[in-house]
Write a structure and sequence with these properties.
Elements lengths: L8 H10 L4 H27 L3
Length: 52
Amino acid sequence: MPGIYAFSVEDLLQVVNHLRILAKMKDIVYGIFVLTCWRIWKARNEKVFSSM
């Protein structure tokens, strides 16, 4: 997979749409991006709200 320059989540989703791979592989890559974003958000919330 080539290097990715993304400045927003929308950029990441566009990268997935422009990959020249099978639709099933696109679904897998999209899932990895979504899970990664969710985990980053969860870790952020744990850090922000754990001090309360």
